[in-house]
Design a protein that fits this description.
Strand content: 5-15%
Number of helices: 19
Shape: globular
Distance between the termini: 45 Å
Number of domains: 3
Number of strands: 22
C-alpha cells in the first residue's frame, strides 16, 4: 500500500471512530452561545483552589460538593449514580479519553474543550491548522463555552447540535455544582507536565547504594541501549508528522529521550529529601525502572506525594494498596506468593485446606510480606486464621525447633516462609510422626537454592513460583537479547536485565499512545490502556484503569526427584 493510500485509509479510520461517538440525531434545540473566554471562571463564594478540589472529587469519584452522589441518566432513561459511573471511569484521570468495546471516549481536558474539534486531524492546534491550510476544514464542533459545555453535560447535545453517544451520562446538576465541575475541566491537563519540552522527554531511574555494580549494570545497559537506539534511529524526525497505530496524527510528537540516574545513599528516611533535590535540579516526566534490595515504600510515597509516575521498578517489596495511583508495579512481589498459596488451598478443597494451618516466617520484610499476603487473602476467602510463628532475627529453623512447634500446634499445612537454611529441618521431618500433609515455600525467597531442596522433602513441599514455567521461558526471554549489546555476562537468576527489557517495551507503547500529550497523569492512563503483553519472566502482563500490578498470578510447583531436579507445575496460573 502506498504512503498516500495509507494516509487516506488512516484518516478515514480516524473519521469513522469519531463518528461513532457523535451519533447524528434529529437536530435538537441549539444550546445557548456566549463569548469564548480563556480566563478561568469564578465560582461564587469559593476560592479557585477550593472549587478545583471539589470539582476533582466530582470528576474522579462522582461525589457532589454536598457529599451526595451525582445523579445522571444513560441510554435515555436509565438512572445511574456518579459513584459507579464517574467521569474518570471513561475519560480517565488525565482527561484525554479512552477506547473500550469499540467505543472511543473523547478528551475532556481544558485545552481540548477550548478548541474547535475537526473531523480531519483533530489533534492539530489552531496555529498548525492554519500553517497547513486546514483552517476551513469541516468542524465536528466549535470550541466549548461555559454555557455550551453545561448544556452538553445536561442534555448530551454538543455545540453543533449533535447528540453524543447514548452511554455518555446526562448529569442533573445545579448551576453552582455545574460551575464547579466546569472550573475543574477547564484546568484539567491544561499545561504540559515538567520533564517534556519541545525537543526532549526526560526520565530518571533510582538506584540505592547497596545495589551491587553487577545488578546496576544489568539494569542500566539495556536502558541506555534503548535510549541511544531511539535517539539514533529517529534522527531527522524533528516535528515532521508521523502516524500511530490507531491512525491519529502525531505531528510534533517526536522527542528525544534522556535518562538520569538518581543514586540514593544512607537510611531510607533520608531518601525523600534526596529525591526532591534531584527533582528540583532535573525535572523529569517519570521514573522508569529503578532498583533497591529493600522496601520500595519511601520511593513510592515520594512519587505519590509529588504525583510523579514510576514505571515498573525492580522490587519484590512494593507497596500493596487499593488506592495509590502513581506507581505501576510488575507484581505484588512476595505478598503475591502468599496470596497464591491461600487461593490454591481454597480452590483445592482437600483436607489440607480445612485443617489447622501454621505460618513460620523469617524475621524481615520478605517473610512479613509473604505471611501478610496469605493472612489477608485467607481471611477474605473465609478461612480460619492460621497460627503464626516468627523466628527471631538471625534464628535458623532447626529440626528440633520445628518439631517442637509441630508437636504443640499439630498443623495439617505449614507455610514455611524461610530461606534455604530450613532445608535441614524439612529433611529431618520426612516420614516422622506428626508430619504435615503439605509444606509451602517461596521460590523467590529461595532463589537458586530452590534446586537444593532435599529429595526426601520434595514430595510434600510445594513452591510458590511467580514466573513463567522455566521450560517455556527461553522461547520468550531470547527477545531481550536485542538490548543487551555490550553485556559480556549478566546475572540471569536476578531477572534484572530481562525485566528491564519488559519495562522498556511497556514504556515504548506508552509513549506511542500518549501521542504528544505529555501530561504525567496521561502517561499513567496510557499505560493502563495497553493490551496484554507477553514478555520475559512473567506469564503475562495485563493492565487496566486503576490496576497497578501487571502480573496477577503465580504457579504452584514441586521439584522432581533426582540430582538434577526440575520444577513441575502442580497448578494452572493461580490468579489473585
Amino acid at each position: 500500500m502506498s504512503p498516500r493510500v495509507l494516509l487516506r485509509f488512516r484518516t478515514l479510520r480516524c473519521w469513522t471512530l469519531g463518528l461513532c461517538l457523535l451519533v447524528t440525531a434529529a437536530f435538537a434545540t441549539p444550546p445557548p452561545q456566549s463569548k469564548v473566554t480563556d480566563k478561568p471562571i469564578k465560582v461564587s463564594g469559593l476560592s479557585s483552589d477550593k472549587a478545583l478540589a471539589l470539582g476533582e472529587r466530582m470528576y474522579r469519584e462522582g461525589i457532589l460538593p454536598s457529599g451526595e452522589p451525582m445523579q445522571a441518566v444513560v441510554s435515555t432513561d436509565i438512572p445511574v449514580v456518579g459513584t459507579s459511573f464517574s467521569c474518570m471511569s471513561c475519560h480517565l484521570r488525565g482527561g484525554l479519553g479512552s477506547w473500550e468495546g469499540g467505543i472511543v471516549t473523547l478528551p475532556t481536558n481544558g485545552a481540548k474543550l477550548a478548541q474547535a474539534r475537526y473531523w480531519k486531524f483533530p489533534n492539530l492546534s489552531p496555529e498548525e491548522r492554519q500553517s497547513m491550510s486546514l483552517k476551513v476544514a469541516p468542524q465536528a464542533r466549535p470550541a466549548y463555552t461555559d454555557e455550551t459545555l453545561a448544556h452538553m453535560l445536561r442534555t448530551g447535545v454538543d455545540p453543533s447540535r449533535r447528540e453524543l453517544h447514548y452511554v455518555m451520562p446526562r448529569y442533573d446538576l445545579s448551576d453552582q455544582d455545574m460551575a464547579i465541575l466546569i472550573h475543574y475541566l477547564r484546568s484539567l491537563s491544561m499545561d504540559l507536565s515538567p520533564g517534556a519540552d519541545a525537543t526532549t522527554i526526560r526520565f530518571a531511574t533510582v538506584i540505592t547504594d547497596e545495589v551491587s555494580p553487577e545488578d546496576q549494570r544489568d539494569m542500566l545497559v539495556p536502558m541506555n541501549n534503548y535510549i541511544n537506539l531511539h535517539n539514533q534511529l529517529s534522527k531527522g524526525f524533528g516535528t515532521r508528522g508521523y502516524y500511530s497505530v490507531d491512525g491519529d496524527e502525531m505531528i510534533g510528537a517526536y522527542r528525544r529521550l534522556s535518562l538520569s540516574v538518581w543514586k540514593l545513599h544512607g537510611a531510607p528516611g533520608t531518601w525523600a529529601v534526596q529525591l526532591q533535590a534531584y527533582l528540583d535540579k532535573d525535572p523529569v516526566l517519570a521514573l522508569v525502572g529503578g532498583l533497591t534490595y529493600g522496601d520500595w515504600k519511601p520511593i513510592h510515597t515520594f512519587c505519590e506525594t509529588r504525583k510523579l509516575p514510576c514505571l515498573l521498578p525492580l522490587t519484590e517489596l512494593p507497596v500493596v494498596s487499593d488506592s495509590d495511583w502513581y506507581t505501576q508495579y510488575f507484581s505484588k512481589g512476595y505478598y503475591q506468593e502468599g496470596q497464591a498459596a491461600a487461593r490454591f488451598l481454597h480452590q483445592k478443597g482437600d483436607p489440607a485446606s480445612s485443617g489447622r494451618i501454621l505460618t513460620i516466617s523469617q524475621d524481615g520484610a520478605e517473610g512479613a510480606a509473604l505471611a501478610r499476603g496469605f493472612r489477608e487473602t485467607w481471611s477474605e476467602l473465609g478461612g480460619e486464621a492460621a497460627v503464626e510463628v516468627q523466628l527471631e532475627k538471625g534464628e535458623v529453623l532447626s529440626p528440633s525447633r520445628l518439631q517442637a512447634i509441630l508437636q504443640k500446634e499439630k498443623p495439617v499445612t505449614v507455610l514455611c516462609w524461610t530461606g534455604g537454611s530450613s532445608f535441614q529441618a524439612l529433611d529431618a521431618l520426612a516420614g516422622r510422626d506428626g508430619q504435615p500433609q503439605v509444606v509451602f515455600m517461596s521460590s523467590r525467597l529461595l532463589g537458586s537454592k530452590v534446586y537444593d531442596l532435599p529429595e526426601k522433602a520434595r514430595g510434600f513441599t510445594w513452591l510458590t513460583y511467580p514466573y513463567r514455567d522455566p521450560k517455556e521461558e527461553p522461547n520468550v526471554s531470547k527477545y531481550a537479547e536485542t538490548l543487551m549489546a555490550g553485556m559480556k555476562e549478566r546475572h540471569s537468576p536476578s531477572r534484572i536485565a530481562t525485566r528491564t527489557f519488559s519495562m522498556i517495551q511497556v514504556l515504548k507503547q506508552g509513549l506511542m499512545d500518549m501521542n504528544r500529550f505529555f501530561y504525567r497523569d496521561n502517561f499513567m492512563d496510557r499505560i493502563s490502556m495497553q493490551r496484554d503483553q507477553v514478555l520475559p519472566d512473567y506469564l503475562r502482563l495485563s493492565f487496566g484503569p486503576g490496576q497497578r500490578y501487571a502480573s496477577k498470578g503465580c504457579y504452584i510447583m514441586q521439584l522432581s526427584p533426582g540430582p538434577k531436579g526440575e520444577l513441575m507445575r502442580m497448578s494452572e496460573w493461580v490468579i489473585h
